[in-house]
Amino acid sequence: MTNLSQSSANFPWAIAELPALRQALLDLFCEVAYREGDFLLSSGQKSTYYINGKQVTLHPQGGLAVGRILLPYISPETVAVAGLTLGADPIVTAASVVAAYEGRSLAALIVRKEVKGHGTQAYIEGLTLPEGSPVVVLEDVVTTGQSAMKAVDRLREAGYQVEEVITLVDRQQGGAEFYEKVGVKFQAVFTIQDLQKRWQELHA
């Protein structure tokens, strides 16, 4: 079995070329996020595997890799990245910070699941942008697509233009079909097949 912890520590996450970085990120998912067993998902579905995306997005090198890998997926006219708390919080932050290093300006917006009960009572935390601003929703793992769609709906209600969801992992359990049906563009960095194939290789 490959010693991924050692290879993760030694890998040049900040300067590696994107193809090598993508492979390193996939390996990190297999190391810290992917587990097999009997699980109940937030969607209510039962599954023989589970992906805890926060183990990657909150990882010191993983967060950097997530931002670097996602940035090319985000169109130049996009002015903000957003997502539903809690899973998307580190992802939108990583993309925003990496964008700044690349000379791009991407605001980070966090969409609450419930309206804040004090202060401004806002659903959306972050800069207030002009009406019609193009925003892309980011997610760690998509199953049915309903979770990220909540963020899309809240952002649209706030007056933003939201036409796309980008996820790190697509479990391929209806999310892509759902977004096609509602007219939202959908992209995924990895599919569940990518993770499972690599996991098997590393645990052979």
Automatic annotation (TrEMBL):
Keywords: Glycosyltransferase, Magnesium, Pyrimidine biosynthesis, Transferase. One of its GO terms (biological process) is pyrimidine nucleobase biosynthetic process. Its cofactor is Mg(2+). Residues 123-179 form the Phosphoribosyltransferase domain. Homodimer. The gene is pyrE. This is Orotate phosphoribosyltransferase. One of its GO terms (molecular function) is magnesium ion binding. It is an enzyme of class 2 (transferase). CDD domains: PRTases_typeI. It comes from Phormidesmis priestleyi ULC007. HAMAP family: PyrE (MF_01208). Its EC number is 2.4.2.10. InterPro entries: OPRT, Or_phspho_trans_dom, PRTase-like, PRTase_dom. It comes from the Bacteria. Belongs to the purine/pyrimidine phosphoribosyltransferase family. PyrE subfamily. Pathway: Pyrimidine metabolism; UMP biosynthesis via de novo pathway; UMP from orotate: step 1/2. Catalyzes the transfer of a ribosyl phosphate group from 5-phosphoribose 1-diphosphate to orotate, leading to the formation of orotidine monophosphate (OMP). Orotate binds at T143, R171. It catalyses: orotidine 5'-phosphate + diphosphate = orotate + 5-phospho-alpha-D-ribose 1-diphosphate. 5-phospho-alpha-D-ribose 1-diphosphate binds at R112, K113, K116, H118, E139, D140, V141, V142, T143, T144, G145, Q146, S147.
